[in-house]
Design brief:
The structure is a homodimer. Chain A is of the alpha/beta class. Chain A contains eight helices and 13 strands.
C-alpha cells in the first residue's frame, strides 16, 4: 500500500494564495478529486486524472478518494480556502471512521487561506480580536442552532465571520442573521461583504449592520464579516475596518 | 509619495506555508519590520534593511512602518501566521487612525496560514464545524472578559482555538480555561496542543479535556484546540481528531 491521500486547500481563488506545499502536492498527484469548480483550477497534464464531482457529494467523494489511495494512487482532494473549515477534511475523516480498512493509509491535510482571512485582509483587520466562524447554511444543522450560536456570539462580542451567507434553498438566512445581531450591536457596526475573493470581479463592500439585512450583494460565493462592538472604520479614499487588539475600557460584563 | 506599506503573514513557521504573494512582497521590500524572531525568517540581501524589534512594541513599530513608507520605502511588516489574527494588521490600522497624514498611503494586508488552521490540519479536522478563536492573554483585555467568552463559546458548542495559551506573567491561564470548559463539556472531549508548528521540534499532542488543565506541554509558542461536543477521535497508528460537518440528532437546544 504505497498510495497516499492529501486533502489540500487552494485558498480563495488566486494562485498567489496557494501555498508551495499545496502546489507541490498537485504537481505529483495522479488523481485529483473535488467539487468541479475547484478541480477546474488544476491544470490538466499527462498522468493526472481529474475527478470533478457535484456539490453535496462530499462523503461519496471522500470514500472514492480513500479507495483510489488504497489502490496506490497519489490522491489529492481539493477544497477552496482551507480544507479544514467547512470543507472536505471533515468528510474524509468521517469516511475513514466508517472504513477501518483504510486507517493506516498515509493521510495529510495541507492548510490553505480560508475565505474569512482573505476577506479580512482586503478590508483591513476586522478579525484582529477574538472572533468566531459560523456557517449559515442549514443543510447540515437546524436553523435554531444557528440562531442560538449567533445570539451567544453576539453576547460574547466576537467579531463574526458568516460562511455560506445565502443558499438557494433558504435565501433569507443572511437577513435573519443580520436582524438578530442588530438586537445586540449598534446599527453602525461595520460589516463586510466580500465576493469573488481573489477572482475576476472581486468586490469588497463595507456597510453598516443596519444595512446588511437589506443588502442583495451577498451570494453563495460570498463571505460576510460582522464587526464586534469595538470594530472601527478608518475613513479615507479606501476606507478600512479594524478591530483593536485591546479591550480595556470595556462596557460592564 | 511612492512608498507602500504591506502587512504580510509568514505562516506558522515553514517556508512551504508562505504564499507566493508574500514571498514576492519580501523580495521587493526595502525595509522589513517585525518582532525579531519573525524578521529573522527573512534572508538579508543588499538593498534591504531589517528592523527587528521587541514584543509588545506593536504600536511604535506600526508608526515607524507608516513613517518609512511615507518617506518612499517599500515597507513590509511581518507577522507570524496571519497578520490579521492577533497580530500586526490591527496595530497598523490603529496607528493609521491616529495619524491622518498617512491615510492615502497604499497599504495592503497579505493573509497567511494562521496557527489554528495549521494545527487543525496536522491533527485532522477539529475545526470542521462552527468554531471560535480566543486569545488567552490578558495583557490587552481583562481576564473576566476571557472567562465570559469561554463560557459563552462552550454554551454555543463551538470548537475553540486558544491563542497564547500560556504567558510569563500569568502561567495558569490555560488551566483556568480548561477547568471552566470542563464544566460544560465531557471530560473525554478531544483537545490538541500543537507546539513549534512547521519548525524543528514540532509536536502535536492529542489529549482529553480532563487532562488539559494538568498538562505542562503548552507554552508561548503553542496553540491549543478544544473540540466541541461533537468532535470525534479516529483511532489508528496516527490518531485523528475531527468535527463532523453535520449537526443533526443534536441535544435539545
Amino acid at each position: 500500500m504505497t498510495g497516499t491521500l492529501t486533502i489540500a486547500g487552494l485558498g480563495p481563488g488566486s494562485d498567489a494564495l496557494v501555498t508551495p506545499e499545496v502546489s507541490a502536492a498537485l504537481a505529483s498527484a495522479t488523481d485529483i478529486l473535488g467539487y468541479a469548480p475547484y478541480v477546474s483550477r488544476v491544470q490538466p497534464r499527462p498522468g493526472l486524472t481529474l475527478h470533478p464531482s457535484d456539490n453535496r457529494e462530499e462523503l461519496a467523494r471522500a470514500s472514492e478518494a480513500l479507495r483510489l489511495a488504497a489502490e496506490g494512487g497519489q490522491v489529492v482532494v481539493v477544497s477552496s480556502g482551507d480544507p479544514g473549515v467547512f470543507a472536505m477534511a471533515s468528510a474524509v475523516f468521517e469516511a475513514l471512521e466508517q472504513a477501518p480498512q483504510y486507517r493506516e493509509l498515509p493521510i495529510r491535510v495541507l492548510p490553505g487561506i480560508t475565505a474569512m482571512l482573505a476577506a479580512s485582509a482586503r478590508a483591513g483587520a476586522p478579525l484582529g480580536h477574538d472572533f468566531c466562524a459560523i456557517n449559515l447554511s442549514d443543510n447540515l444543522k437546524p436553523w435554531a442552532l444557528i440562531e442560538k450560536r449567533l445570539r451567544l456570539a453576539a453576547e460574547a462580542d466576537f467579531a463574526i465571520a458568516l460562511y455560506n451567507p445565502r443558499s438557494v434553498r433558504r435565501s433569507g438566512n443572511l437577513a435573519e442573521a443580520a436582524n438578530l445581531l442588530l438586537r445586540h450591536r449598534p446599527p453602525e457596526t461595520p460589516c463586510i461583504i466580500a465576493r469573488n475573493l481573489g477572482r475576476a470581479g472581486e468586490t469588497i463592500e463595507i456597510l453598516p449592520l443596519a444595512s446588511l439585512a437589506g443588502s442583495a450583494s451577498a451570494d453563495m460565493l460570498s463571505i460576510v464579516l460582522v464587526g464586534s462592538s469595538r470594530t472601527r472604520l478608518v475613513p479615507g479614499e479606501k476606507p478600512r475596518v479594524y478591530t483593536p487588539r485591546g479591550y480595556f475600557d470595556e462596557p460592564p460584563l
